[in-house]
Amino acid sequence: MVVRRPPPALAPFVESIWYFAGDLAHTRERILPTGAMQILVNLHEDELRTYHGPAYDQVVRSRGAVLGGAHDDHFAIDTAEQRRIVGVSFKPGGAYPFFAPPSDAIGAAHVELDALWGRDGAVLRERLLEAPTPAAALRTLEAVLLARAVRPLERDPALAYALDALDGPARIGDVTDRLGMSPKRFLRRFSAEVGLTPKRFARVRRFRRVLGAVERGRAVEWAQVALDCGYFDQAHMIHDFRAFSGINPTAYRPRTPGELSHVPLSDSAG
User: Fold this and answer.
1) What is the C-alpha to C-alpha distance for residues 141 and 137, in angstroms, rounded to an integer?
2) Which CATH number does the domain 157-252 belong to among 3.40.630.30, 3.30.310.50, 1.10.3210.10, 1.10.10.60?
3) pLDDT digits (tens, 9 = 90+) for 45-80
């Protein structure tokens, strides 16, 4: 795993630019929502397969360079297919300056980059394959991202405030009052830039706080975690956890402690 910190111009929008190569012991992974979007370029195969539905038996195929929307549900990926992959992990709302369609038009889909960037998207995979080293591939992807900005690389102060507030215990009504917006205007603006409604984003990020509070291999006081993360009680937290992950909290085992969204599936799990 090679990770490149974004330059100052991209830092308000991009969490990381990364390269992964390797074989994993498991063949599939459950992917959990983050509230943010990603660029994914598969250098092993010119295809990306995702698996959906309760049993992960509904297969969606796309070519190997996509923008992944801010999904609010879990799905599975084929890890054997993705043995060498490059990506951009955006911060919530961070993809908005780089693509002409609003983020809520992308939804939870994986949209092929040529549909969004034309020829630049169509040849991106080939350009990355030609890079002599992982570091060179990451520099190429960074340069493409800077060149493809279609909106000013300036963080919207209102959106930045709303994202920060809704990543915590703030109520949506209090946020709109603070910003002086009507609920409808705030909903349209937030959804267009982030790809999720404010309510759905707040729920996903609350779920993420639970994941961050769980330390693998240690006993967890689930009732206290629920209260600390903003749930009414433990039952409320378990309901949300199942909705966003498809599993109970006690079954959650991430691939590594630092990769909270990647949960290995057993071969019998789809």
Assistant:
1) 6
2) 1.10.10.60
3) 999 999 999 899 999 999 999 999 999 999 999 998
Ranges assigned E (strand) in the chain: 2-4, 14-21, 28-31, 38-42, 48-52, 58-62, 65-68, 75-78, 84-90, 110-112, 262-265
Cβ atoms of residues 231 and 269 within 8 Å: no
Q: Angle at which helices 172-179 and 157-166 pack, to 10 degrees?
A: 160
Length in residues, the chain: 270
For residue 120, the tally of other CB atoms under 10 A from its CB is 14
Handedness of CA 141, 144, 146, 148 (dihedral sign): negative
> Is 23 in contact with 83 (CB distance < 8 Å)?
yes
* pLDDT tens, position by position, 29-49: 999 999 999 999 999 999 999
Tokens 């390797």 belong to which residue? 22
The DSSP bridge partners found for residue 259 are none
Query: In CATH terms, is domain 2-147 a member of 2.170.130?
Result: no
Q: End-to-end CA distance of the chain, in Å? A: 27
